[in-house]
Design goal:
The complex is a heterodimer of chains A (296) and B (167). With 296 residues, chain A is of the alpha+beta class. Chain A contains twelve helices and five strands. A five-stranded mixed β-sheet of chain A has the order 1-3-2-4-5, sandwiched between helices. In chain A, α6 packs antiparallel against α7. Helices cover 74% and strands 0% of the residues of chain B. Chain B has eight helices and no strands. Chain B is globular, with a radius of gyration of 17 Å. Chains A and B meet through α1 and α2 of A and α1, α2, α4, α5 and α6 of B.
Chain lengths: 296, 167
């Protein structure tokens, strides 16, 4: 029975035949195969290049110093990357002026397209103004940010711009704020490139982001041009970078600064702290308007 | 082998085996054009499978082509089942009608209903492959090839009977 089955099945299968006169065309088939191989090569090449480009872009994002900041503010980041100027970039309220007594030191070397380095970027107003308002700030201090945002514009409008006084920012990072000195370094480095006010305002606005991890430069990246940002980061390794902070802190100790913001009015060679609490524009105005004696 | 177009060896190999393989596939699917496509597909797979490129290369491509043919057969059978038609391939032309007898259609339908390995065994064996070749090509134990062939034949007969009644 099994043999009968075998024969029957084999007979059926043997009946399967290709057409007797049909001769497959190997040449045409080989041509088709080659075309297919070429198409596949193109696809593979396209895929490989796309992958390489994507990997390159990803790697560039990883190594770029502003990658996290770009993730948070991609619009500004893209504008910088493609050289488009952001129309809404904040403009400093007043232009720092050259101090009359400043020594004619050679300006530090700057890359092209960065603004000229101001000789004293922390001083706003006329060098010949009779009064100087020294404002001690700690970047990791919320009232300091409020002061800069609300009171400084009024001071600028009523005293600095008319030439009645000049305003000097001073760094006074409190020891209880571990990243305040770092923020001051970054702001000063940006200031040496002509971006002090922009950097200062950005640091106050993003304080709650960097005061947890100290990643100050990541917060500056969105508001500084890429080349300036690179200069700021290079400047962080400058051994003299803390000299200005140290000088401001020494002045603050001489002025008995015990909190921030802290204002000292300098008039007629006398330095007088404004001790009003809270430190409002009204209190400052009262002091400035009654000089040479500032009522406490 | 980097690419077919760069390899004289591949051309030689292709020309040496293509016609035989295409005709073998045509036996399975009963459609010349489709058989050529499937044969090219088998060579394509061969080119992309470095492990296949050895002494058994011819057998490997042959088995792959048969397997593709069986796959095509099963696909058509499914389609025919769903469509309620027992018709293979494109609408019949005079040549196809002449070439494919009713009996061939029945055999192909029965093959399509088998397990792919059983169908491969039967088709390769009917093409005069030895037990040793079958064992090597299908990765089987030589001692079990006979048993598997018997079972494949039984399965074929059972499937044929199920579809068309006792012969």
């Amino acid at each position: 029975m099994a043999n009968h089955d075998d024969r029957w099945v084999d007979d059926r299968l043997a009946g399967l035949q290709a057409r007797g006169n049909w001769m497959p065309d190997a040449g045409a088939a080989l041509t088709r195969l080659r075309k297919r191989a070429r198409r596949r090569a193109v696809v593979v090449r396209t895929w490989v290049w796309t992958t390489v480009a994507a990997a390159g872009a990803f790697a560039a994002l990883l190594v770029a110093p502003a990658s996290r900041a770009c993730a948070q503010q991609p619009g500004q980041c893209l504008q910088r990357a493609f050289g488009v100027t952001a129309p809404a970039r904040p403009v400093p309220v007043a232009t720092p002026v050259q101090s009359e007594s400043a020594p004619a030191a050679a300006p530090p070397k700057q890359p092209a397209n960065l603004p000229a380095t101001p000789a004293d970027f922390k001083l706003l107003g006329s060098a010949s103004a009779p009064v100087e308002i020294d404002l001690y700030l700690d970047y990791d201090c919320s009232p300091c940010g409020d002061f800069v945002r609300t009171i400084v514009p009024a001071l600028m409008e009523q005293y600095v711009v008319p030439g009645k006084a000049r305003l000097r920012y001073r760094d006074y990072p409190l020891p209880s704020h571990p990243y305040a000195a770092l923020a001051a370094r970054d702001a000063d480095a940006a200031g040496r490139l002509g971006y002090y006010e922009v950097a200062m305002r950005q640091l106050f606005e993003t304080r709650q982001l960097w005061d947890r991890n100290g990643e100050v430069d990541l917060q500056l990246a969105p508001v500084l041009p890429a080349r300036a940002m690179a200069e700021v980061q290079r400047g962080l390794s400058d051994p003299h970078q803390d000299e200005e902070i140290a000088a401001d802190s020494s002045a603050g100790q001489a002025d008995h600064v015990d909190r921030t913001p802290f204002v000292v009015v300098v008039s007629g060679g006398k330095r007088e702290a404004v001790m009003a609490t809270p430190l409002t524009f009204g209190a400052l105005k009262e002091c400035l308007d009654r000089l040479p004696r500032c009522p406490q | 082998m980097d690419a077919p177009e760069d390899s004289v060896d591949f051309d030689t190999f292709f020309r040496a085996h293509y016609a035989r393989i295409a005709r073998a596939v045509a036996r399975v699917v009963g459609d010349d054009a489709c058989a050529e496509e499937l044969a090219v597909e088998a060579f394509w797979k061969y080119w992309r499978t470095p492990a296949a490129q050895g002494e058994q290369a011819g057998g490997w491509v042959y088995r792959t082509a048969i397997r593709l043919g069986i796959g095509e057969l099963r696909r058509r059978a499914r389609h025919a089942r769903y469509a309620g038609l027992l018709r293979f391939g494109s609408p019949p032309n005079p040549e196809a009608i002449h070439a494919a007898s009713e009996e061939q259609k029945r055999v192909r339908m029965a093959l399509a209903g088998l397990k792919p390995r059983d169908a491969e065994l039967l088709l390769l064996r009917s093409d005069d492959y030895s037990y040793e070749d079958l064992a090597a090509l299908l990765d089987l134990n030589l001692a079990s090839v006979g048993t598997l062939l018997v079972r494949a034949r039984q399965a074929f007969r059972k499937e044929y009977t199920k579809l068309y009644g006792e012969p």
